Amino acid sequence: MIAATEKEAAQSMEDAVEYAREDLATIRTGRAHPAMFNKLNAEYYGAPTPLQQLASFTSPDPRTMLITPFDRSAMGAIEKSIRDADLGVNPSNDGNSIRVVMPQLTEERRKDYIKLARSKAEDARIVVRNARRHGMDALKKAEKDGDISEDDLARAEKSIDSTTKKFIDQIDDLLRNKEQELSEV
User: Fold this and answer.
1) What is the rounded CA–CA span in Å between residue 68 and residue 78?
2) pLDDT, tens digit, for every residue of 22-43?
């Protein structure tokens, strides 16, 4: 009972950290990065399809992303998806591939992106704390029902607290790295 509750809470926390990692990767920096396009979908034969399934991504230089569709008929849909995504870029189509050039970030835009990163990290911390709370509630209920002793409850609470701290620290590290990346000129 205790181990299952701890494992479930830890899994929820791990999922939150992974989601935060993916979410922070989508925040654009001055560099071109394929993760910026992870959450974009394009209409392909009437179905929304992730861009990673429609094209390959290469970065010939730090500020340019070259997107080569596997099927040329999808080129317009990919270009439209990127244009509509509010990434602050304007894709250009040369008939074979789509070139996306990242403009230099202004100081104000960098600050906005840092605020956005902090917000996303706080959302992930909230998910971790909610997983902790759900685990603690389940343990307290089990103790109240007589399934576990007070000592087992105290040990389990310490264990869940240390797990929570570990995952919060991982989120803080992700945020620190992203802030550093965004601050680079």
Assistant:
1) 10
2) 888 877 666 777 878 888 899 9
